Structures are given as structure tokens and as C-alpha cells.
Backbone:
């Protein structure tokens, strides 16, 4: 796992009640350099959260203007009813964020809501979580200077199996877009537990979702083709200047090669696509370097979004950006632009970026499946023919039936 140097480590007392969580905590602590370690109950945790301001989120990582590792909370999931969770929330209102009350083992990606509220095309699915926060310090991300790590992973696996048996129409489960759990392996043990469970689960597949090159622990696992690994890939400049603590592009490509050689189906998200001054040259270089060595079964493409223009200008270094895109951000701020959901840049500017990278992918590998990620119906109408797929009928990196063999989801528009 990564070496971590957090300003403080907070251990919830519930962690000590199970020998498995105690042992997991001990393994992780061997790689954490911190002298400020405390054990608390919910009341004590609430006091700390309130004092640190961790319950006042809404910023992007770059807006904190820090390069230090986040504070760590070691926690456990609770399997309470909605009524019990609500009662705990009333008692400890400061713990209502970051799933500090032990909630959040899975979330539901609601495609119907995205369609109705944002006119975006997506596919509904449950997604699995084990932690909330990250070590990579990507400046555009939503995570705060807090890393809430759940330790009762054996229970999580059991509950996920129960959930999955109740929704037979979902074949693929993303794990984890609320953190990058591979950074904590093998000491954490989530990869081993989940890969083993899915390897024995007929018709179900696990999708590990990462930017990390910490993959050695995966290479000898008996995944039986039921674990896929999806890398988020950006240009070398973005790796260095914006995703500040992530592995370089070269290291990610090497990690993909290793996992591909170990039999894992590999997927790629060119995401987020950020319009820097030399974005065309950088995208071309990135695509060429990746596709010369890796054969992803699916690629998704995605333009940066999910924040307001003011947030983007505060979180990211505008000196790196294409001036045309900075001008648009300034204009949107002047016009008091109100973002409906994901998208900041107007359709024609996103289309320019997406069209360019799709053409680059197809130039190198004409048969490569490429999908748009949470894009509008209008964008699908314009670029769908270039991808070879339709919004009603497409495969993507994390769609609920986008499993090896590409069983295509039907999306009702």
C-alpha cells in the first residue's frame, strides 16, 4: 500500500469489537506515519468533525490548496434501518456527511433522474463502496481532507451478495468510485475478498476502478475472468500538474499491461478530458501510447465537469488551460451561469474535445468500442455515429450489463 502521512488518525471504538477489523487496522497502521492517533465514540468523532469543519463540504480538492495527506477515520459499516440511521443523524448532526455514521455501502446511479434533470444518458446501477476519500489529491475531485475507511469488509461482501441476488438484472458492479481502494492494498484486503467472491458468483462481475499502479497484489488472484479493471487515464501534464499524487501515465500503462497479462479484462476511461493549452497534441500522444500497449475491451470518454465555473477557476491552475476555455469560464461567471448537473462547457466545445479523441482512438483501432459518459441526448445524436453506438443501445465501462462479451443495455429514453 501507499505510505501515508496524515495529520491525524481517528479510530472509532466500534472497530475494536471484531478481531477481523482489529487485525485489518493493525496491518494498515504499519504503513501510516502519524503520532496523533485517538480512539473515540460517535460523540467524540462529532466534536472533532465539527471543530475541523469537515461537515462543511462543497469544495473541490484544489480549493483546499494543500498537498498533505488527508486525516484518516477508521470506521465500520452499520446495517441499520433508515429509521435508525435518521435517529443517529439527529443525535449526531455533524456526522451527516462522508458516511461517518456507517452508511454508504452501496449507492444507486439513477439514470432516469439524470435524464429528467440534466438530459443526460446513463444506465442505472448499484455501485459498491468501501471508503470515502482518497490519497491521490486530484485537484478537480470532490473529496475533502478526510478519508473515512470502513474495516468490516467481510460483512460488506456478504451484504453485497444479498443485494445482488435481489437484482438479477445487474451483472457488473463498480468498486469503488468514492475512493481508490487499490492504494491501500494488499494490507486492506478488499481486492482479495471481492475478487474471490465474484470469481465464484455465476453471471456477476466486479469492476475495480482506479488510477493506481499498485497492482502486484492482483496478479496472482484467481479471478476467473470475473474481475475487470478500469483505469482513469489522462495526459502526462494532467498527471503531473492536476492529479498531483497519482502515478504517471507510463506507470499506469505498465500496470494495465501487467493486469492484462494476468488475464484481467482491462477498460479505460479517458477522463476527465481537460482542455489545456496543448490538449490536441497531448490527447493524441496519450491515445497513441496507451493503445500501442493495451487492448481495452471498452473505452469511455468524458469531459471535465461536475463543478461550477468559479470552483473550476479556484481549484485548477488556469495558466495551464487553453485560453478559449478560460474565456468561456469568465463569460459564464459574468452571466451568472447556473449549472444543472455535470456540464460546464457548452455543447460545441465539449463536442470538439470528444470528437477529436474519438477520431484518434478510431484512427489507431477502428474496431474499438467507444462510449460517451453521462452526455446529453444531443451529444449522442451528434457523435453516436462516430462511436458506432446509440444512446438506446450501448456498452460502456460500468454499465450494469456491460460484461465480457458486451451484453448491451437497453436504455429507455
Residues:
Amino acid at each position: 500500500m501507499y505510505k501515508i502521512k496524515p495529520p491525524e488518525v481517528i479510530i472509532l471504538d466500534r472497530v475494536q469489537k471484531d478481531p477481523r477489523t482489529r487485525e485489518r487496522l493493525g496491518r494498515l497502521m504499519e504503513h501510516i506515519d502519524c503520532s496523533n492517533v485517538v480512539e473515540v465514540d460517535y460523540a467524540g468523532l462529532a466534536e472533532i468533525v465539527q471543530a475541523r469543519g469537515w461537515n462543511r463540504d462543497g469544495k473541490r480538492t484544489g480549493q483546499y490548496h494543500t498537498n498533505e495527506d488527508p486525516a484518516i477515520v477508521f470506521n465500520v459499516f452499520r446495517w441499520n434501518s433508515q429509521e435508525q440511521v435518521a435517529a443517529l443523524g439527529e443525535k449526531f448532526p455533524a456526522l451527516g456527511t462522508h458516511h461517518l455514521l456507517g452508511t454508504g455501502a452501496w449507492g444507486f446511479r439513477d439514470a432516469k433522474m439524470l435524464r429528467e434533470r440534466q438530459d443526460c444518458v446513463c444506465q442505472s446501477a448499484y455501485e459498491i463502496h468501501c471508503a470515502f476519500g482518497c490519497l491521490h489529491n486530484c485537484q478537480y475531485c470532490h473529496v475533502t481532507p478526510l478519508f473515512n475507511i470502513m474495516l468490516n469488509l467481510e460483512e460488506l461482501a456478504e451484504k453485497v451478495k444479498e443485494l445482488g441476488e435481489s437484482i438479477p438484472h445487474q451483472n457488473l458492479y463498480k468498486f469503488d468510485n468514492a475512493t481508490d481502494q487499490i492504494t491501500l492494498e494488499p494490507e486492506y484486503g478488499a481486492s482479495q475478498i471481492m475478487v474471490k467472491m465474484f470469481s465464484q458468483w455465476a453471471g456477476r462481475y466486479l469492476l475495480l476502478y482506479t488510477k493506481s499502479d499498485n497492482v502486484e497484489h492482483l496478479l496472482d488472484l484467481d479471478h476467473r475472468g470475473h474481475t475487470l479493471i478500469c483505469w482513469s487515464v489522462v495526459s502526462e501534464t494532467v498527471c503531473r500538474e492536476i492529479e498531483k499524487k497519482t502515478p504517471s501515465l507510463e506507470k499506469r500503462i505498465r500496470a494495465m499491461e501487467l493486469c492484462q497479462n494476468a488475464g484481467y479484462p482491462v477498460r479505460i476511461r479517458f477522463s476527465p478530458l481537460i482542455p489545456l493549452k496543448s490538449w490536441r497534441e497531448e490527447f493524441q500522444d496519450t491515445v497513441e501510447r496507451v493503445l500501442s500497449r493495451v487492448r481495452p475491451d471498452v473505452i469511455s470518454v468524458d469531459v471535465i465537469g461536475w463543478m461550477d465555473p468559479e470552483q473550476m477557476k479556484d481549484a485548477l491552475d488556469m495558466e495551464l488551460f487553453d485560453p478559449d476555455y478560460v474565456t468561456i469560464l469568465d463569460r459564464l461567471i459574468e452571466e451568472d451561469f447556473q449549472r444543472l448537473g455535470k456540464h460546464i462547457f457548452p455543447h460545441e466545445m465539449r463536442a470538439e474535445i470528444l470528437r477529436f479523441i474519438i477520431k484518434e482512438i478510431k484512427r489507431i483501432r477502428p474496431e474499438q468500442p467507444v462510449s460517451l459518459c453521462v452526455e446529453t441526448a444531443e451529444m449522442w445524436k451528434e457523435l453516436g455515429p462516430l462511436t458506432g453506438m446509440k444512446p438506446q443501445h450501448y456498452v460502456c465501462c460500468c454499465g450494469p450489463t456491460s460484461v465480457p462479451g458486451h451484453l448491451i443495455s437497453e436504455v429507455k429514453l
Remarks:
- The domain at 9-410 is CATH 3.80.30.30 (pyruvate-formate lyase- activating enzyme).
